[in-house]
């Protein structure tokens, strides 16, 4: 039903490399750091982001959010040549985030789950990214019947326990990445004239599965899979 996902090897870098017009960069942020707050970058965030973080009573949840948003700004600013605090990250009417006032056609999407955040970056074509930790769900079959194609739901229901969990998360991440690429949401159909994106799966870390969706998605061998170096956590100033 789905090809076997590729196990990803992450290249550690201090700043983004050059991004080709048809390229794809996928970034891994380790966010499960307990009570370890970011050392720098809080002043890069917008007032709304700081207010949102301040409202989070669970310190682990708050710090995961801060590591994600600071890391995202550091990554995007590296492509655009701006200071991270100067980026304006806005939301379209459908809720999809984008970088405002930038002429380079930079597109990004992110997915956060327990312990990690994945960020996909490309140019010109919108993309969607989703990552999930593999886990059992008591309502797995009901969700599959409601949201997936009947053949996929039937295959999940017929599978053994371990395969069922794997198949479900492959289907779920594919669906999420697809709808995040165009921002239409889970319960809206794709317009009849709109082309479907290419979707590919990967394993970002043991116990997780992820999917990337984009029209014109390059083959996996052409992707760069990157991780920010911890010893360069933030830009000075």
From TrEMBL:
Keywords: Transferase. SUPFAM superfamilies: 4'-phosphopantetheinyl transferase. Signal peptide: none annotated. The keyword Transferase applies. It comes from the Bacteria. Residues 126-188 form the 4'-phosphopantetheinyl transferase domain. Gene3D superfamilies: 4'-phosphopantetheinyl transferase domain. The keyword S-adenosyl-L-methionine does not apply. GO terms for molecular function: transferase activity. PANTHER family: L-AMINOADIPATE-SEMIALDEHYDE DEHYDROGENASE-PHOSPHOPANTETHEINYL TRANSFERASE (PTHR12215:SF10), PHOSPHOPANTETHEINE TRANSFERASE (PTHR12215). Belongs to the P-Pant transferase superfamily. Gsp/Sfp/HetI/AcpT family. This is 4'-phosphopantetheinyl transferase superfamily protein. It comes from Thioalkalicoccus limnaeus.
């Amino acid at each position: 039903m789905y090809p076997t996902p590729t196990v990803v090897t992450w290249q550690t870098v201090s700043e983004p490399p050059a991004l080709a017009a048809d390229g794809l960069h996928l970034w891994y942020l380790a966010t499960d750091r307990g009570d370890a707050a970011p050392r720098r970058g809080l002043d890069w965030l917008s007032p709304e982001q700081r207010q949102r973080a301040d409202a989070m009573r669970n310190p682990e949840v708050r710090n995961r959010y801060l590591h994600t948003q600071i890391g995202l700004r550091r990554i995007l600013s590296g492509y655009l040549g701006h200071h991270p605090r100067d980026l304006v990250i806005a939301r379209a009417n459908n809720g999809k985030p984008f970088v405002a006032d930038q002429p380079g056609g930079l597109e990004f999407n992110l997915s956060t789950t327990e312990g990690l955040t994945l960020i996909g970056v490309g140019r010109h074509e919108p993309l969607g990214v989703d990552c999930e930790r593999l886990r059992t769900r008591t309502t797995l079959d009901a969700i599959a019947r409601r949201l997936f194609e009947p053949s996929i739901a039937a295959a999940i229901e017929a599978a053994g326990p371990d395969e069922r969990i794997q198949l479900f998360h492959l289907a779920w991440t594919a669906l999420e990445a697809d709808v995040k690429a165009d921002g239409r949401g889970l319960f809206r159909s794709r317009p009849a004239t709109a082309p479907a994106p290419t979707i590919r799966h990967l394993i970002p870390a043991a116990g997780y599965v992820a999917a990337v969706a984009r029209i014109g998605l390059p083959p996996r061998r052409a992707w760069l899979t990157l991780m920010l170096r911890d010893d360069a956590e933030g830009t000075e100033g």
